[in-house]
Specification:
alpha/beta, 333 residues, globular, 9 strands, single chain, 9-stranded mixed β-sheet, D-Maltodextrin-Binding Protein, domain 2
Length: 333
């Protein structure tokens, strides 16, 4: 005769093992992606990455966690690019093309002054998918896949002195993004460019190492650069283009349906960011001026900046093998 107590114990044990196996399987299906930015949760990068995480979960339909490492916890953008190239530490981030220059000659084109005439031209290029050939080259060279286009703010000269013309621009000690083309163009403008880490810019202006930087209004407001550089010269020399990228090595680890969800979420998160920047760019400028934190100045010789930069940009594009892509983008009406 079988002992009823032993039978109940055996059934309970089997049931517990089954529940444990199901729980373990569910946990094994949870995917964790690590995102990195240099900024706090109020910054549009962080808000965009948060939105990206929500969209990935929505489209994948299975547990996905996107952990956002902000405030330069994992270094600066050049570090994120290196990590994603190697497939370690960071899976997704929003990067300036110039901060990918160690791995691709093509990406810095997007940061070069006067590649885009204005925001309307930039939006038209996006609408016609005009950057796609460039993104294909970036992926081949860097091992990072572009899944979204961020940006839309306009960049100006931010300084501790007014600059309204070429004469006043001469000798301006400016911080530039770390790509040689940036230094070359601003040197041609008559300025004295220096490559300085973004998180060191405030102190560098305060200590007199540099006199300012080139940036967009929301960044000036968020980083309080107006405290040390309250003079904004309205050059509108660039439309901010930032790339939402994912590590190619990370993508290869994911199943096909998650890859599809990431790409769809990336495209929508990029559009989300563009809406933020379009809304907040002028708002940030108006706020700083209204609160007397900054003063704006019309740069009366913008046409000279354009004519000086044109052959330099063309030469850069040719050397990077993207001259046809540049011509096609600039031909967009």
């Amino acid at each position: 005769m079988k002992h009823p107590t032993l039978r109940r114990t055996f059934i309970t044990a089997v049931a517990a093992l089954a529940v444990g196996a199901v729980t373990g399987f569910a946990q094994a299906q949870t995917v964790t992606m690590h995102a990195a930015t240099q900024f706090n949760d109020d910054h549009d990068y962080n808000r965009t990455l948060k939105r990206f995480g929500e969209l990935v979960t929505k489209y994948y339909g299975k547990p996905v966690e996107v952990v956002i490492h902000g405030n330069s916890e994992l270094g600066v953008e050049r570090d994120y690019a290196k990590f994603m190239n190697q497939g370690i530490s960071v899976d997704v981030s929003i990067l300036a093309g110039s901060n990918m220059s160690n791995f691709t000659k093509a990406a810095p084109l997007l940061d070069v002054p006067f590649v885009f005439r204005d925001r309307a031209h930039w939006n038209a290029v996006i609408a016609k998918n005009g950057m796609k050939p460039l993104f294909d080259i970036i992926e081949q060279q860097s091992g990072m896949e572009v899944i979204g286009i961020c940006g839309g703010s306009t960049r100006h000269l931010i300084a501790n002195k007014p600059m309204r013309n070429m004469k006043e621009l001469a000798g301006y000690k400016i911080r530039v993004i770390g790509a040689p083309i940036q230094g070359k163009i601003f040197s041609a403008f008559g300025a004295k460019p220096s490559v300085i880490a973004y998180n060191e810019v405030y102190n560098a202006i305060q200590s007199g190492v540099i006199e300012g930087l080139e940036n967009e209004a929301p960044a000036v407001l968020n980083s309080k650069f107006y405290e040390v550089a309250p003079e904004i010269s309205l050059t509108t020399h660039a439309v901010v283009t930032r790339l939402l990228v994912v590590s190619g090595k990370s993508m290869k680890k994911y199943p096909a349906d998650l890859q599809a969800a990431i790409r769809k979420a990336g495209a929508e998160a990029g559009a989300f960011n563009r809406e933020i920047q379009a809304r907040e760019d002028q708002g940030a400028m108006d706020k700083m001026v209204a609160e007397k934190k900054a003063r704006t100045h019309v740069f009366t010789e913008r046409d000279k900046l354009l004519s000086i930069s044109k052959p330099i940009v063309a030469e850069f594009a040719k050397e990077a093998g993207v001259d046809k892509i540049l011509a096609d983008m600039q031909a967009v009406k």
